[in-house]
Write a structure and sequence with these properties.
This protein is an all-alpha fold. Helices cover 72% and strands 0% of the residues. The protein contains four helices and no strands.
């Protein structure tokens, strides 16, 4: 559904009024959104989380503390990797 000319004009006037009344808010709202995380990076991060969780469970089952600690590190790294957009992660997967 498209806007009528009157509605577009009213929206434009509202925008101008917002910019005049609160320039800081207008600047914040006009900033570009954060870059999206690439699909490959997201999948690789969550696979790392899954492997880490498996290592934690295996370490707890076998009473092997080293495996549980490494698993927790993998989980933390995987979550960071999956949720942080970056240009140098997984260049060629």
């Amino acid at each position: 559904m498209t806007l009528s000319d009157y509605e577009r004009q009213q929206l434009f006037l509202l925008e101008q009024q917002l910019r005049a009344d609160d320039p800081a808010l207008a600047l914040t709202l006009s900033l570009a959104p954060a870059p999206a995380v690439p699909h490959r990076t997201l999948v690789a991060g969550w696979l790392l989380v899954l492997c880490g969780a498996t290592a934690v469970l295996w370490g707890a089952y076998a009473s092997f503390v080293g495996a549980a600690v490494v698993g927790l590190l993998f989980v933390a790294a995987g979550l960071y990797w999956a949720e942080t957009p970056g240009s140098r992660k997984l260049r060629r997967m």
